[in-house]
Design brief:
Length: 216
């Protein structure tokens, strides 16, 4: 597995070496003896630009090495050449890393690019729209935030923590709009997710203190 990761990391340069070798063999011995090297070089370079090193980026993220992930993302020089679903993932990852840096403007741009490309996974679309909704709420745009969060819930969100967070955001929006029955319904859905993340459970405890006293 490590050997395969090394191959992915240096695939482009191995392709260049193969092409140089092919040219040398072509000059010395002719085209046919060099054909295999030409094919290897072209395939390596093509897959570098068409698929990219997303496998390595995912491993960096799983290990919590966000600097390593960002550095590896920077090796994708021409993202427009990536296969469309992979390009969507590329912009999602760029958006997530920007979010971690609190660079919400860049995160929003990247997330919107990802959504415009579509996604092979409906859950990824839901996660992107949830993040866009959260960013809109932070900017004070409740109408846009509600729209994105509703779309995220409809598309499906991949984990219970994020689902609970989406329902809690909708609950708070409904409270602000004084639609108390809807607020209670979203609150029940958030609790039904049985989240364990402290950030989410703390919000549930805070809202629970006064939501039962609401009319509706």
């Amino acid at each position: 597995m490590k050997l395969f990761n090394v191959f992915i990391k240096y695939r482009f340069w191995l392709g260049i070496v193969a092409l140089i070798g092919a040219i040398v063999v072509n000059v010395i011995s002719g085209f046919l003896p060099a054909l295999v090297l030409y094919l290897i070089g072209i395939i390596f370079i093509f897959t570098h630009f068409f698929i990219g090193p997303l496998r390595l980026i995912q491993e960096f993220l799983e290990d919590g090495d966000f600097d390593g992930a960002e550095k590896m993302l920077s090796t994708i020089w021409f993202p427009d050449l990536l296969y469309k679903p992979i390009r969507s993932v590329f912009y999602t990852l760029k958006g997530n890393l920007a979010m971690m840096k609190q660079d919400f403007d860049s995160a929003e741009i990247h997330m919107k690019k990802s959504l415009s490309l579509g996604s092979a996974m409906k859950e990824a679309e839901g996660a992107n729209k949830l993040q866009l909704g959260m960013m809109a709420m932070q900017k004070g745009d409740m109408k846009q935030g509600e729209s994105y969060i509703r779309q995220a819930i409809k598309a499906g969100i991949p984990d219970k923590e994020s689902s609970a967070l989406a329902y809690l955001q909708m609950c708070q929006i409904m409270i602000q709009k004084r639609e108390f029955r809807a607020a209670k319904d979203f609150f029940r859905k958030a609790k039904a997710m049985k989240p364990t993340a402290q950030q989410v459970t703390d919000q549930i405890k805070q809202i629970e203190k006064f939501i039962t006293r609401m009319p509706g």
